[in-house]
Amino acid sequence: MNTVDPETLYAKLTQGKVQPRKAKYLAIVHEICKQRFSVKATDWTVASIGRESEARGGIGANGLRLPRSEAYRGLIAAWKEYADAAHPAAKRKVTAGADDWILAIDNVASRQLVFCLQSELAAALDEVKLLKKLLPNKGVIKVLVEPAGQTPSEAATVPVTAAAERACKRFVDGPISSPARAAEVGFKLKKDGDLAMASTGEVILERAALELLRAAARVG
Asked: Which helix (H) or strand (E) holds 184?
């Protein structure tokens, strides 16, 4: 099956006389999709992209679902098909046999709930990937220890880009805002402050890194 080039589709959607607000919203959705493609994200749902779009000042999930928002949904669909074709290994990793145990759940309501939770976890993991990508130095964090006697005003600072600040704020206000929120998406805030996967106990971010993210989210 031939896939539609999302860059070409975006150019067609924004050519000619386009309302400024629509042009802005299309640009935001396009940029989100482009970033997700670059990190081989697997969550292309309207709900997930809508949340991120709204956080950036664009159209939200409810707006994306409206009949008149077909252009946005078409752009998202084009990026999804393009990503599936370009990153087949990432798609297989998510879909190949991964849902068999969920399909084995007899209770329909329980099965649908697990599918929803799985989708939320995928969205959270994709946001973590984006967060790491948007952090200065490609996610490498350097902790500088202040020399004795140095005043706060003399301390070295780490610049935080606007994009990194927004990404940090989404993460801090979302999955790691509380132990309960973390548990909802499959994470666990440990007693020592580290963030780990609830299922395996694997530490995703150590306490020092989390504190830096919280500080970056408060920059604005």
From this structure: helix 179-184
The CA–CA distances, whole Å, from 206 to 127, 140, 169, 192, 193 equal 17, 13, 17, 9, 7
Separation between Cα atoms, residue 201 and residue 39, nearest integer Å: 24
Express each pLDDT in 149-196 by its tens digit: 555 444 444 455 666 666 667 777 776 677 777 777 777 878 887 877
Rounded Cα–Cα distance for residues 215 and 142 (Å): 14
Count of domains forming the chain:
2
Please identify, among 45, 80, 95, the residue that sits at the C-terminal boundary of a domain: 95
Interval 106-160: pLDDT, tens = 666 666 666 667 666 766 776 676 666 666 555 555 545 455 555 544 444 445 5
Strand partners, 195: 189, 205
Instruction: State pTM to two decimals.
Output: 0.46
Q: Is residue 42 part of a domain?
A: yes
Is 183 contained in some domain?
yes
What is the extent of the structural domain holding 158? 119-217
The answer to whether residue 67 is domain-embedded is: yes
CA distance 41 to 44: 8
Q: Which of 32, 63, 95 is where one domain is finished?
A: 95
Burial of 156 (0-12, 13-18, 19+ CB in 10 A): exposed
